[in-house]
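I would love for you to help me understand the pair of lines that follows before we discuss the fold together.
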Amino acid sequence: MILTYLCFRQACSKFVVLFDVRKYSISDIENFIGIKAHTIRVWEVRYNLVPPKRTSTNIRYYDGEDLKMLLNIVALNENGYKISKIAKLSQQQIFELVRELKTNWDNETVQLLTLSSAMINYDEFAFSEILTGCIQEMGLIKTMDVVLFPFAKRVGLLWQTGSIDPSQGYFASNLVRDRIVVEIDRVEKPKVANPKRFLLFLPEREMRETGLLFIRYLLKTYGHDALYLGAEVPYVDLKKAINSYEPDYAFIVLTSLHLGKDINKVVEKVADHVDVPLLVAGSLISEFEILPKDRLTPLKNVCDVVDFLKEL
């Protein structure tokens, strides 16, 4: 038993070291914190704030602790603290001030940065604490709109540029997904005079369910019915579901960059396989122009979706 425990401890220590040795370039840091590399270098030269480390071949890099500190510095700076004042603070003082800011749950900038920090460190407790605080203070709808959707967009950029490990992105997205499922279960569906039926699904090559689950939450909140099929539904199966369920609307959410830039081809293909009005939401809808099409309604943001449901 003792030998097994010691082996387990040794394995855990190796696991921790594995994540501690991650090296971030200044372009990685720029993507994480949203501050230009030039500004980061000015902070370093002028105030000696978070000087980078160097490899044996003199290449500059930052480690996980450096990244956490820079995230904290940006959180303070964007909430009125001058860099010259921050530079005079100890690491503990910076940490304490950021902790005070975190309790202001509707401070979107701070929550975005602290979620990023929790994701980097695989800190489930911290990530869940932020989610809980934001939802209790603002409700899930506003939390999704001003915190989680911007966070997801940032994670997508970091993932695309290789600034984070895929496992960090999976870690964060699964925690958000699980929390939305909990919030769906908590909703007491109101009785409405004429509830509509929605078929919810993601087309082939679209795997991110967070946005679609949020739509499911909204539909339940407004008293409508939904058949949730999930991610990457084969087109050949849609007609069977529509014939059986007889929905009033089909609803998809497009967020994955794997779909390519010609989003209209994806939307057109989906529309060709459904014979009911099609609603399309997601970050890609706000980034690319959707061509008009019969029975097609693009919803570019949370407000558009809420307004549409209110008018039903």
